[in-house]
Amino acid sequence: MELPRFSSVDVLIIGAGPIGLACAIEVQRAGLSARIVEKEALVNSLLGYPTGMEFFSTPELLEIGGHPLPTARYKPVREEVIDYYIAVAKAEKLDINLYERVLQLEGQTGSFSVITNNGTHPARSVIIGTGFFDQPNLLGVPGEELPKVTHYYKEPFSYAGQRVAVIGAKNSAARVALDCRRHGAEVTLIHRGSEIGQSIKYWIRPDLENRIAEGSIRAYFNTSVLKISQGSIDLRTPSGPVTIGNDWVVAMTGYQPDFNFLEAVGVEFEGDDRTPIHHPETMESNRPGLYLAGTVCGGKNTSRWFIENGLIHAAHIAAHLTGQPIPDIEPQGQP
């Protein structure tokens, strides 16, 4: 069966995360038509965050389109932020196709064809705002494919009374270790570095350090995982090989952009971080008419861009598309 050809738009945006939504809003307010195509749910990456997770940022830094983020808290939680972005998308009447995966990008600036599993979208320009949360950094060790291993964390309750290994020592790993320990898990923190990550927030660090010092969280530093088995993990430690009993592995080893997809649509890279080539002001990639926005711009350096400072990309792209001066907007927030 031949798939349909959708109506043409000025700008086709790939990704319905906060940055993709912001791009659609800015493009529409600049007088252009826009459509978003998203392979999963609306703001899908936020759905993968832990239940009840508190954002590090205050509400105004997460806002898009001038819409206030309603919350009674100093810092909003996951559920409030998800509801907010859904409400903004509805209020702005954004054209969004969900659960539609982009397969190919053909044509050139002014006449692109974005081919998906549902059909073809003609567009004059294309913006990629796909983030990185779907692609975990794998450990690359035997046993990583076991059902007991996950690179995502939702809540602690299923780990109560279980032996849980948390791999990593940055903010996400620290949160998981503390949360699981508070809810009855026997927690072991495993980190290849010599100490807790320097980027851990100041209010999280002392809690984790104190739990390690008192022994309620066991920690192995300068340690790597050699093998994961059904009831144990083999480690390489400074003192030699060690095997510990284990029921679950939560590998908070970070994420990276979908480089295979970026390569398939013609994006080129530079440096050890595989930073996608793009103009620092207009955000146009090496392929004319194809723009990049948000965390995807940082390559493997996923702490370079985030929601708060990535929102400026939307305004820059809209200005370039309409021939306006690039706005002088100061990036907000911090990693």
Structure report:
21% of the residues lie in helices and 24% in strands. A hairpin with a 2-residue loop joins strand 4 (102-108) and strand 5 (111-116). It has helices at 18-29, 44-47, 78-91, 171-182, 205-214, 259-264, 307-310, 312-321; strands at residues 9-14, 34-37, 96-97, 102-108, 111-116, 119-128, 149-150, 163-167, 186-190, 217-220, 224-228, 232-237, 240-245, 248-251, 269-270, 275-276, 290-292. With 335 residues, it is α/β, with parallel strands linked by helices. Strands 1, 2, 3, 4, 5, 6 and 17 form a seven-stranded mixed beta sheet that branches. A five-stranded parallel beta sheet has the order 7-14-8-9-10. The protein has two domains: 9-135 and 255-321, FAD/NAD(P)-binding domain; 149-251, FAD/NAD(P)-binding domain (3-Layer(bba) Sandwich). Helix 1 (18-29) packs parallel to helix 8 (312-321). The chain contains eight helices and 17 strands.
Give a quick set of tags describing it:
335 residues; alpha/beta; FAD/NAD(P)-binding domain; 5-stranded parallel β-sheet; 17 strands; 24% strand
User: In whole angstroms, how far apart are the ends?
Assistant: 47 Å
User: What is the CATH homologous superfamily assignment of the largest domain?
Assistant: FAD/NAD(P)-binding domain
Which percent bin holds the helix content? 10-25%
* Low-confidence segments: none
| Radius of gyration, in angstroms, nearest whole number | 22 Å
Overall strand count = 17
Label the overall shape: elongated
